[in-house]
TrEMBL record:
InterPro entries: LexA/Signal_pep-like_sf, Pept_S26A_signal_pept_1, Peptidase_S26
GO cellular-component term (any): membrane
KW Kinase (keyword) present: no
Primary site of residence: membrane
The protein's name: Signal peptidase I
Gene Ontology MF annotations: serine-type endopeptidase activity; signal peptidase activity
Topology versus the membrane: Multi-pass membrane protein
Originating organism: Alteromonas marina
BP GO terms, sorted: signal peptide processing
Domain Peptidase S26: 19-195
Compartment(s): Membrane
Active site, renumbered: S43, K97
Length: 217
């Protein structure tokens, strides 16, 4: 009986070998090259909305052996402004945040206004609680909701080696480096480049047509 079961198993594997190989390649690709991430919170609004499925380039910074954390090669540098997926030990969960400062940068926050390496961010009104933030040649839209936030200020700090400082674009509604501390580069799993599709939790999870294949900046 045991021999018959083994023979049946071998025959089943042989018959389904193309499908098995396809699944192995698919999951290897998702493990090392690209994946998507469901966004459950509004900490990155307005850039990323609750219900977005974000495409993540997992080979943007490093190439790893599939299903492991073994780095085969470094493929790129983490830059200010990058939106990244973080496998955070401090938060004990995955986070999606924007890199605000990289190693060596001197940063402070005064009443939600960023200062990086002596340059003060300029804010211009875009809409209700929305502002265009410009600093060090980069511009992005942030939300400054009128919420009492204990994290709208921090004193001048220097980002240590092999770490970044990351924050959510929804500045008064984001738990980020202001709570968890600097993010080790080794915890960054990839770069978020675009929204594949989005389901609206406030409208019976119907697709948001205007979010389809939206690039992230």
């Amino acid at each position: 009986m045991r021999t018959e079961a083994v023979l049946n198993l071998k025959q089943s594997v042989k018959n389904n070998l193309p499908f098995i190989l396809f699944m192995v390649l698919l999951f290897s690709f998702r493990s090392s090259v690209a994946d998507w991430y469901y966004v459950p919170t509004g900490s990155m609004e307005p850039t990323i909305q609750v219900g977005d499925r974000v495409v993540v380039d997992k080979s943007a910074y490093t190439l790893e052996l599939p299903f492991t954390d073994v780095v085969v090669a470094k493929t790129g540098n983490i830059n200010r402004g990058d939106i990244v997926i973080i496998d955070s030990n401090a938060a004990d969960t995955r986070l999606i945040k924007r890199v605000v400062a990289i190693e060596g940068d001197k940063v402070k926050l005064e009443n939600n206004v960023l200062f990086i390496n002596g340059e003060k961010a300029t804010l211009s009104v875009k809409g209700h609680n929305l502002y265009s933030e410009h600093i060090l040649g980069q511009t992005r839209t942030i939300a400054l909701n009128p919420l009492p936030s204990p994290a709208k200020n921090f004193n001048l700090i220097t980002v240590p080696r092999d770490h970044v400082l990351a924050m959510g674009d929804n500045r008064n509604n984001s738990v980020d480096s202001r709570y968890y501390g600097f993010i080790p580069i080794e915890e960054i799993q990839g770069k978020a480049n675009s929204v594949a599709f989005s389901l609206d939790p406030d409208d019976m999870y119907l697709p948001r047509k205007d979010r389809l294949f939206t690039s992230l900046q």
